[in-house]
Design a protein that fits this description.
The protein has four helices and no strands. It is an all-alpha fold.
Amino acid sequence: MGITEVLESHSQPLSNEILYELAQQLTEQQKEDRGTKELQMKNHPDILSAIYMAAEKLCDIDPDLERSSTGKRGIRAMLHPYYEILQEKKKNQNN
């Protein structure tokens, strides 16, 4: 029985036991979702590399050093969380 069905079938407040079971189901579902999302990140290094190369090219063709540096820093800052994920994966693979 799914979470929605349980909620719809009860007109009275849910017991602690049922709430605990629902929480477990939700946790399991989130773990499954996370697993599929990780599979989608397979091309992560290639994507980051391509974006960094594009930022470098923009800097190369922009005569305004301040603007190109600001843009490059912004791109790197925006991608930093993804870079951290990549570093964590590499670290976990080495352990």
